[in-house]
Amino acid sequence: MSAGGSSAWGRRLVIAVPYIWLLVFFLAPFVLVLRISLSEVAIAMPPYVPVFDLGAGWDRFVADLGRLSFANYEWLAGDPLYINSYLSSLRIAFVSTVLTLLIGFPIAYGMASAPRGLRPILMMLVILPFWTSFLIRVYAWIGILKPEGLLTLFGQTIGILSGDEQFRILNTTTAVYIGIVYSYLPFMVLPLYAALERLDGSLLEAAQDLGCPPLKAFWVITVPLALPGIIAGCFLVFIPAVGEFVIPDLLGGSDTLMIGRTLWNEFFNNRDWPVSSAVAVLLLLVLIIPIVAFQQAQQRQQEAAR
Amino acid sequence: MRKMSAFNITALTLGFAFLYLPILILIVYSFNESRLVTVWGGFSTRWYGELFRNEGLMDAAWVTARVAFVTATVATVLGTMAAIALVRIGRFRGRTLFNGMIYAPLVMPEVITGLSLLLLFVAMNFARGFWTVVIAHVTFSMCYVAVVVQSRLLTFDQSLEEAAQDLGCPPWKSFFVITLPVILPAVLAGWMLAFTLSLDDLVIASFATGPGATTLPIKIYSQIRLGVTPEINAVCTILIGLVAFGILAASLASKHRLLRTGNAT
Questions:
Q1: Inter-chain CB proximity A283 and B20 less than 8 Å
Q2: Dihedral through CA B202, CA B207, CA B213, CA B215, nearest 10?
Q3: I want to staple A89 with a disulfide (CB 3.0 to 4.6 A). Which of A21, A259, B172, B253 is the partner?
Q4: Which residues of B touch A23 (CB under 8 A)?
Q5: B263 burial class (0-12, 13-18, 19+ CB within 10 angstroms)?
Q6: Which of B195, B181, B193 is nearest to B152 (CA)?
Q7: Is residue B180 part of a domain?
Q8: In a domain, B3, yes or no
Q9: In this complex, do A18 and B22 lie within 8 Å of one another by their Cβ atoms?
Q10: Chain B residue nearest residue A204, CA to CA
Q11: Which of A6, A131, A263 should one mutate to test binding to chain B, selecting the residue with the greatest count of B CBs within 10 A?
C-alpha cells in the first residue's frame, strides 16, 4: 500500500477524531468520578471540596495526596444500606439472567429450527421490541401488574381469583424480575439464535442413528456448541441489569434495593455527589471483571471472523 | 434439517406473545374513552387530542427530535471513522485502549455514564442544556454505530479499494466512490440505531440535561411516577408507531436495493 503524505494525514485524522472524543467524554469523566469520590462533601455548587487541581503543578499534587479522603468509602462500608444494595443488585441480576436464559433458549431454538424463509421475519420480530423505548416497555407492565390492573382482571375472569382478591405483584421484587426478563430477552435470544443457527443438524441425526436419546444429545451436542451464544447472552443481560435504574424504580417496591437506584437517589435526592461517585466507583469495580471478560470474548470472535 | 416440532411452535408462540402482548395492550388502551386502565369505556381518540394540546409534552417532543437528529448525524460520522480505524488501519498505537473504549459503553451501566459526564460538564463549566445532552448521547451511540459498520466492513473485499489506490485514486476518493456505497446500508442502519437510542434514553439525559432541555423520556418518566394515564399511552403509541414505520421502511428499502442490484450478498 502506498502511504503518501496526504494519505498518512487522513489516516491519522480518521483515528484521532473518534479517539479524542472518547478520551475526553468517556475516559476522562471516570478519572473525575474517582477524584470526586475521594473528596469531601461541601454545601456549594458543585457540592464538593475539590482535590487535585489539574493546573496546580506537581507540588500541589503531592500535597493533595495527603488530603485524599477515604471517608466516603468508609461511609459506604459502614452503612448496611449500600452493602445490601450491592448484594441485592447482584442477586437480582443473577436470578434474572438465569430466568432470561431459561425463557430465551426455547425461543432461540424454535427460531433456529423454523423453515429458512421464516427465520428473517422471526429475527425481525425479536429485534423490533429492542427498538421501542425501554421506558415504554417497562411502563406497559405497570398497567398489567398493578393490583387493580389487567392481570387481576384476567385472574378474576378465569376464576383463579375470587371476587375482590387481587394480585400483589407491582412494587415487589417479582415485578423487577418480570421487567428485567422482558426488557432484556432480545439480548439473550439473538446471540443464542446466532449460535444455534450455525449448529450442524447432521450431528444430531448421527447421534440419534447411533442410539443416543434426544435429551442426552441435547446436553452433549447442542448445549456445548451453543455455549459461545449462552455466554454472550448472559453477559449482555447480567452486566446492564446490575446497574439497572428504571426497572427497580418503576416496578420495584421501596424495599427493592438496587445499586443503580441507590446512586440515583444519593445524587438527585440527597445531592451528595462524593458519595454517589464512590457508589459509582464501587459499582464499576464489581462489574470490571464481567466487562473485561465480555470484551475479550467479543474480540476472540472478531479475530475468528477475520 | 430439523422439523418444527410441537414444542418449538409452542415456544415461539408463547415467546412472541410475551414480547408483544404488553405493547399491544398499551396501544389498545390508548384508544380507551375511560380514564381508568381496567375499564373499557369505548373507542375514542380523545387522548390524542389532549396530547396535542399538552404544551409541556409537545415542547419535550420537539427537543427530543432535535437532539436525536443531531446526535444520530454526529454519531454516524464518528462511529464510521472509528470502524474504519479499527478494521482498515489495523495496528496503531493505543489500539487496545481504543477498542476497549468502543465496547465498554455498550455494557456500561447508564447511571455511571450519566454521572461521570455530568461531573465533567460541571468541572469544565459547560452550561447544561441541549448540547450537553447531544454530547452525552453521541458518546454512547457512536459505539453502536462503530460496531454495526465494523461488522459490514469485515465482510467487504478490501482488494477493490487497493486496486483503485494502485491505479492512482487518492484514498479519500476511493472511500467515497467504492467503500461508502458498499457500507451504506450499515451506515444508515447505524444512523437509525443512534437516532432511536437517543430518542429512548432517560437515565443519561436526566444527568446531562439542564434548564430548557427536557426531553420526552424525562417528561414521560415524571408523569408515570404520578400514575398510568391514557395520555401517556397515546404518546407511547405514537412513538412505537414511528419506530415501527421507520424500521419497515428501512427493511423494504434494503430489500428493494437487493432486488435491483440482483445480488443477495
A1: no
A2: 0
A3: A259
A4: 101
A5: exposed
A6: B181
A7: yes
A8: no
A9: no
A10: B2
A11: A131
pLDDT in tens, A31-85: 888 888 887 765 555 666 665 555 555 665 555 655 667 777 877 777 888 888 8
pLDDT of amino acid B71 = 97
* CATH code, domain with A288: 1.10.3720.10
Can you give the CATH number for the domain in which B45 is found? 1.10.3720.10
Look at residues A36, A31, A286, A135 and name the one whose alpha carbon lies nearest to residue B107. A286
Chain B residue at shortest CA distance from A303: B154
Using a CB-CB cut-off of 8 Å, the residues of chain B touching A295 are 99-100, 103-104
Query: Residues of B with CB below 8 A from A115's CB?
Result: 4
Q: Which of A199 and A135 is assigned the larger pLDDT?
A: A135
A20 to chain B: nearest residue by CA?
B98
Query: Are residues B244 and A128, on separate chains, in Cβ contact within 8 Å?
Result: yes
Asked casually if ipTM beats, i.e. exceeds, 0.90, the reply is no
Domain count, chain A: 1
Which amino acid belongs to residue A239? I
**Domain assignment of residue A172, given as a range:** 70-305
Q: Do A167 and A145 contact (CB within 8 A), yes or no? A: yes
Coil vs helix vs strand at A41: strand
| Residue B207: inside a domain | yes
- pTM, full prediction: 0.85
Q: How far is A78 from chain B (nearest CA, A)?
A: 22
Q: Is residue A27 part of a domain?
A: no
- Nearest Cα residue in chain B from A272: B115
Q: What domain count does chain B have?
A: 1
Tell me how close the Cα of A281 comes to any Cα of chain B, in angstroms. Answer: 8
Residues B95 and B75: their CA atoms lie apart, in Å, by 20
Report if residue A1 sits inside a domain.
Answer: no
User: Is residue B102 within 8 Å of residue B108, measured between CB atoms?
Assistant: no
| B18 in A contact zone (CB under 8 Å) | yes
Q: How distant is the Cα of A266 from the closest Cα of chain B, in angstroms?
A: 11
B10 in a structural domain:
no
B127-139 burial code (b ≥16 CB/10 A, e <16): ebbbbbbbbbbbb
Any domain includes A28: no
**Tens digit of pLDDT for each residue in B83-133?**
999 888 877 888 888 988 888 888 788 899 999 999 999 888 888 899 999
| Residue A103 falls inside a structural domain | yes
Mean pLDDT of A88-107: 95
> Residues of B with CB below 8 A from A148's CB?
38
Domain limits for position B113: 25-264
Rounded Cα–Cα distance for residues B230 and A11 (Å) = 53
Task: Verify whether the Cβ–Cβ distance A106 to B170 is below 8 Å.
Answer: no
